[in-house]
Amino acid sequence: MQGTVDGFSYGLVTPLVAYLMACLGAALGLRCTTRSMLVAQSWRPGWLALGSAAIGSGIWTMHFVAMIGFSVRQTPVHYDRPMTFASLAVAILMVGVGIFIVGYKGARGTALFTGGTLTGLGIASMHYLGMASMRLNGKLEYNTFTVAVSVVIAVVAAISALWAAGQVRGFLWSVGASLVMGLAVTGMHYTGMAALTVHVHGTAATADGVSPASLLAPMMIGPLAFLLLAGVVVMFDPLMVMGRPARTPVEHKAGVPAGALVPHPRRVPVRADRDLAHRRSRTPQNR
Q1: Residues 142, 127: contact at Cβ < 8 Å?
Q2: Strand partners, 199
């Protein structure tokens, strides 16, 4: 028997909150990626790791906030806790690989395509691994074409967002990119949900796992606390907000201190050269 799937049990509340979570994670992650391009090599891994965790936490929170509004009328829906949090680890890991590639190779050409593709695949992997953590009295089936469309949306969104992060054009530029990325990630989620069909079994067996309400508390406390901490780092870092260094870095050369001004030799006017030569010609030893 085919189950009746409802992805909006609470109306527009869960989609809007999910979108805001996706935008928040994307904004913090993209600002950290931009920041990594403005610092020394020793600080770069830390900023990229923070950006990866922010984006991964944001999309994971977005997914499960949206899933609070998901239900199948003929059967209760539960979730397997270890697999649920494994999806968070996969999201952070795969997004991190993509962001590190862009952070070290630059947001252009092959590096941008490779990093964006891996980041997009990380977003899609998180979504479908999170769906695999569902436990219900039935079987999940997906439409292959719609699933492929959802993956393409995730990849294109990731490439576009990382390209925007590499432009280093200031805070508002990244805010716009995060809004677009949040919309694309949320759209990818509901596109993937549109590919889902649930076939409910005739038996009344009870599915194992915990209810969505039981997952809500750790889901909101853990990743949101991290996103709040990352947001504090962004807000109190002027260089992070501006998106560009306060001064143009000076090339380091031997014997030249960083930031020092190197004076240029002054050129003596040609007329002064002629006057000096004329005075020398009138000295006693030249007469």
Answers
A1: no
A2: 2, 139
